[in-house]
Design a protein that fits this description.
Helix content is about 25%, strand content about 25%. The chain has helices spanning about 15-25, 55-70, 130-135, 165-180, 195-210; strands spanning about 5-10, 30, 75-85, 90-100, 105-115, 120-125, 145-150, 155-160, 180-185, 225-230, 245-250, 255-260. Helix 1 runs parallel beside helix 5. The longest helix has 19 residues, at about 195-210. The protein starts with 5 loop residues before the first strand and ends in an 18-residue tail after the last strand.
Length: about 280
């Protein structure tokens, strides 16, 4: 269904470096990038443009924009979100969503990769010693930094800093002009190799889902759409909040399949049981 077709990667931040080789090898597409596509119009990490849509809707808009510009009917887009990890609350997380869109066959295939592998951080900096310490923690200069005069409501911003001399000079310039300096990690993919590796993992997950076909109609993208709780407690046999089964569903013919005990265990430890351990 996809071999030999032209696919546009909806990015202006170099994500094609990790996405294109994998898709070309595994799916057989011919990938390209539109150099006139401005994905920053849909939101920026540094805050100049607020992202007002959900990650999925933003990725969908990116795909449609890229396909319209490139006269192509196959696209892929990535949308990242950064903040506290959804389950490990005190650790920063990188939540990468990838959308593969086939306009010709009305197919959308979505995956997410949530990782604690991120240097995401930001802080008000008062002197060069604090700046140096922050930069080291942010894996600078292999990972870029951003300097602003304030965290929110800023008037000036310098992005993509990957040189120590420029970093220090920019810090002094902002401190002299504005009195306060806020430094944060540049989360754009081309300035963040750690994020690029998470995008690579998400791409591998996407390829696996693309290759998964519906047992009934053989449409690509047969994957998890929902789940059911209720894995029984090993002591009292009461249903727990743990996953009992994963529900796979086809977006074409709506065929669904329940796969029980997805984590390889048929019972849950009593410590996770609301009855044994209220």
């Amino acid at each position: 269904m996809f071999e030999g077709r032209k696919l546009v990667i909806a990015t202006k931040h170099g994500k094609e470096d990790v996405i294109a080789p994998l898709l070309e090898e595994q799916i057989g597409v011919n990938s390209c990038v539109s150099r006139t596509l401005d994905t920053d119009a849909l939101g920026t990490f540094s805050g100049e443009v607020e992202r007002i849509h959900s990650p999925l809707e933003t990725a969908r808009m990116k795909c449609n924009m890229a396909m319209d510009i490139s006269n192509c009917d196959l696209a892929i887009a990535s949308e990242g979100s950064f903040g506290p990890h959804p389950s490990l609350y005190f650790i920063p997380g990188d939540d990468e969503l990838l959308l593969f869109m086939d306009r010709l066959n009305s197919i959308e295939i979505v995956v997410r990769e949530i990782s604690t592998s991120t240097n995401f951080s930001g802080s008000f900096i008062r002197n060069v010693d604090e700046l140096t310490a922050f930069a080291e923690g942010a894996i600078f200069p292999s990972h870029g930094l951003i300097i602003k005069d304030n965290r929110d409501g800023f008037r000036d911003v310098k992005k993509g800093i990957v040189n120590r001399d420029i970093l220090i000079q920019t810090f002094h310039d902002f401190q002299r002009k504005y009195g306060s300096v806020y430094v944060e990690t540049d989360m754009r993919a081309m300035h963040n190799p750690t994020r690029m590796q998470v995008i690579r993992k998400a791409t591998l997950k996407l390829i696996e889902k693309i290759k998964s076909k519906c047992p009934k109609c053989e449409l690509p993208g047969f994957g998890i759409s929902d789940y059911k709780k209720g894995l029984p407690c090993i002591v009292c046999n009461s249903p727990t909040q743990s996953t009992l089964c994963l529900i796979h569903k086809c977006q074409g013919c709506n065929y669904s399949l329940e796969k029980f005990f997805p984590h390889g265990k048929t019972t849950e430890d009593a410590m996770f049981c609301d009855r044994c351990n209220p």
